[in-house]
Hints:
The chain is mainly alpha-helical and 126 residues long. It contains four helices and two strands; from the N terminus they run H-H-H-H-E-E.
Amino acid sequence: MPRARWEALARKRAKRGRKTMRMDNAPDLFADLRYGWDAWRELDMAREYAPGGTPLGVRHTEVVAWLNLNLIRDDLTRLDIYGTVFILDATWLSEERKARKKPTKNGNSKGRARGSRVRVGGKARR
């Protein structure tokens, strides 16, 4: 999100009395990384999850399809975006795994709480 837009949103939130993050030390996104970031964001929204709720990585074929749909033909640009997407995805997946392993206040991980009820066919089961 561009800094000016973020600052406008932050002012709105502050006016309503909500918490806002400070952008003083936030890094600017380099223009050449923009396509890689945009590609990862779009592919992340279509991410598939394992049956246990664990996120799966972005597939190679999805990245190639994104490049083709966006008419990116230059080989060096394609390689840069391709590499950037997988670096971002690997970083996000590792942080997500760490967050799932952290215990919460009740001692369980951030995944589904132990002993929580799941509705199956109208009946609550453990």
